[in-house]
Structures are given as structure tokens and as C-alpha cells.
């Protein structure tokens, strides 16, 4: 679904979307309206459907009154000169993709009357990881510090981007999917690079078998509630701030620092 030859994937996907709408509209479910609009507006011209599918999944869950959140980690900028024309062009289209996803989610919230209660950032957040170097006391500056000099600012803050190059997803703190493919034309075209992926989970460390929250909760700050074992599909809120900056705009902070794609119903 992530790539298509010209005309082929578009026609097939549009046909599926319209048929899906026709089957479901009879149920009186308003979710179908926004899904149909998104199919027509975005999917008709998209070469990569993964961002749209994530946003539509969140919209579907909003209409179904179920909680579903996605936390996506991306590099601050792709490999290359951050101020270069090519890099800036990639960042521009990345921003437009994020904006498109948030618009889909906002429309869903507005349709069900939750736009005054929740924000799109309560359902979708982008993060750029960073690190900070220890101060080098042996290094001396060759001149006075200048706030307008990027090199001086970098030496002062000692922060640098973590270039995320992993291809993985964690679902419900139970399942992990790791592979070699990037979400780009080279990997997804199907006729170029050979890719491999695997999915795994530990049967004894699932929510159902352990009857408790994931162990990662114990290392992320004090829980807002004292219940020892929240039911499956629920996630405790933690009071510790996120260790990485949000790329989600002006929304609320995410409820947990874990990378999660499905929190289950009534987890607010």
C-alpha cells in the first residue's frame, strides 16, 4: 500500500474506499463521511499511503469512541546539509505530510464534537531525539561568545541530533516489528532492494498474562493513580516530562513516554 505504479494503485485504492463507504453508510456511522473525503482528497494523488492510513486509523477510532495514539520518531533533518536546497525541500514536504495528518484528525474530532476537549496532538505526536555532550573544560574559545554565531551556540548548548535510522514499531508494549525497509520509493517499490522484516512478542510478557502494566512504566516517573494493574488496553499517565522534544505543535504533552500505537478504549 505504500507505493504504486502510476494509475494502478490509485484506481484500486479509490475503488476500495468508495465501496467501503457504500457498505458502511447504511449503518448511520458518521465516520464514513470523513474517510470518504480523505480518500478523494489525499489518496488520489499520494504515492505513499502509510501516513494517510495512520491518520485514518486514528480518525476511525475517534468516531468509534476508542483511544488510539501514534508516536512517531523521525530525525530532525535528513542526512545532508540542513540548510541545503534538497534538505529544505524534503523538510517542507515532511511538514506538509504532518499537516495533512493533523487535519484529518482534527476533522474527526470536530465531527464528533470533541474539538474543544481534545487536540490532534493527543492522538498523534512526532519526536526528534537529541543528546547532550558533557562539558569539555579543556576546550578554550578563540574569541568572545556571540549569540548570533551558530558555532558558538552549539558549543554552549552541547546538544546534537540523534540520527534515527531504525525501522521499527512497538504496538501496545507487546509486539515489535523490525525490518530493513525504509518508507521510501527505493524500499517500497518492490523491484529494487531486497528487504527483510520480523515480528516478535514474548507470550509470558503480554498484558493478558502478566496482569500488569509494562515494566517501562516503573522507570518513567510516578503514576497518577495507585492501581497496581490497569486493565488491558489502558495506560497510566506519568508525571515525568518527555525526554525528547515534541514535533506536534502546541498540543498537550503525550500521556506517556512510550512509543505506542494503540492504547485501547477509554484511556484518557
TrEMBL record:
It comes from Zea mays. Signal peptide: none annotated. Its EC number is 3.1.4.4. The lineage of its organism: Eukaryota, Viridiplantae, Streptophyta, Embryophyta, Tracheophyta. It catalyses: a 1,2-diacyl-sn-glycero-3-phosphocholine + H2O = a 1,2-diacyl-sn-glycero-3-phosphate + choline + H(+). GO terms for biological process: lipid catabolic process. It is an enzyme of class 3 (hydrolase). Keywords: Hydrolase, Lipid degradation, Lipid metabolism, Repeat. InterPro entries: PLipase_D/transphosphatidylase, PLipase_D_fam. Residues 211-268 are annotated as: Disordered. This is phospholipase D. Residues 211-221 have a biased composition (Polar residues). GO terms for molecular function: phospholipase D activity.
Amino acid at each position: 500500500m505504500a507505493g504504486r505504479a502510476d494509475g494502478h494503485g490509485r484506481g484500486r485504492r479509490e475503488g476500495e474506499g468508495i465501496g467501503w463507504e457504500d457498505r458502511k453508510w447504511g449503518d448511520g456511522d458518521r465516520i464514513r463521511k470523513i474517510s470518504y473525503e480523505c480518500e478523494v482528497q489525499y489518496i488520489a494523488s499520494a504515492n505513499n499511503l502509510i501516513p494517510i492510513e495512520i491518520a485514518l486509523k486514528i480518525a476511525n477510532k475517534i468516531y468509534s469512541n476508542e483511544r488510539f495514539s501514534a508516536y512517531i520518531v523521525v530525525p530532525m533533518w535528513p542526512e545532508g546539509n540542513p540548510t541545503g536546497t534538497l534538505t529544505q525541500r524534503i523538510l517542507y514536504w515532511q511538514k506538509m505530510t504532518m499537516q495533512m495528518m493533523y487535519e484529518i484528525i482534527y476533522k474527526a474530532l470536530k465531527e464528533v464534537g470533541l474539538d474543544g476537549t481534545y487536540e490532534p496532538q493527543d492522538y498523534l505526536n512526532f519526536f526528534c531525539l537529541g543528546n547532550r555532550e558533557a562539558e569539555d573544560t579543556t576546550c578554550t574559545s578563540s574569541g568572545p561568545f556571540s549569540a548570533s554565531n551558530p558555532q558558538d551556540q552549539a558549543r554552549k548548548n552541547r546538544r546534537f541530533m540523534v540520527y534515527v535510522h531504525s525501522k521499527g514499531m512497538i504496538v501496545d508494549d507487546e509486539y515489535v516489528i523490525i525490518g530493513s525497509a525504509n518508507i521510501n520509493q527505493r524500499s517500497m517499490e518492490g523491484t529494487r532492494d531486497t528487504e527483510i522484516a520480523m515480528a516478535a512478542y514474548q507470550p509470558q510478557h503480554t498484558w493478558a498474562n502478566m496482569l500488569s502494566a509494562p515494566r517501562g512504566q516503573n522507570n518513567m516517573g510516578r503514576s497518577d493513580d495507585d492501581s497496581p494493574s490497569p486493565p488491558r488496553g489502558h495506560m497510566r499517565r506519568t508525571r515525568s516530562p518527555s525526554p525528547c522534544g515534541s514535533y506536534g505543535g502546541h498540543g498537550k504533552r503525550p500521556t506517556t513516554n512510550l512509543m505506542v500505537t494503540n492504547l485501547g478504549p477509554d484511556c484518557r
